[in-house]
Amino acid sequence: MKVLVIGLGGVTNGGKTTLAEKLKNMLPNCDIISQDDFFKPECEVETDERGFKLYDVLDALYMDEMVTSIRNWMKSPASSGVVTEEPESTCDNLKNVYILIVEGFLLYNYEPLNELWNRRYFLTLPYEECKRRRSTRVYQPADTPGYFDGHVWPMYLKYKNELEENASMKVEYLDGTKSQEELLSYVYSDIIQELNKLRE
Prior knowledge:
- The protein is of the alpha/beta class.
- The protein is built from six helices and five strands.
- The protein has helices spanning 16-26, 63-75, 111-114, 127-135, 147-165, 180-199, and strands at residues 2-10, 30-34, 97-103, 119-124, 172-175.
- Helix 2 links the parallel strand 2 and strand 3.
- The protein is globular.
- Belongs to the uridine kinase family. NRK subfamily.
């Protein structure tokens, strides 16, 4: 049995969840873990001097629990409830390969996760487009006025810069303004190549 762990990280509203779901439908034995499921409750998230809840930092998440969930999945993916019906096009020699897509906005800045990835993707968006998309979404708790400019975007830039400065980190940057079909086609092909390497 072989396991492939794919990171799908990047900017808020960059299309991570949509892409992950579409890939899951196309790939054999594929499962998703979402970082959003590991947010601490609101009462445990720090507030800064401007009254902003600091959600876009590692401290707002139960990262250790997330690592444990991923490791547990890797130990026994078949018991995770992953659907093992083969998509039509899948070759027989992929039956023993399990794929986990981990999607979230802050995946590559936490050291214990970095030894787990087979591939890392990072979706980017320009400021205006990201702000526009974010304004169409409803969050619990809701974004307060100035929150995007005061917290969300600066944290995205901070963590993206950290990533770019880390030369040892192999990350594939994806343009989130491209069509979903284009992104899906590119990442799917890339993962298939990775699967073929595993088989060799």
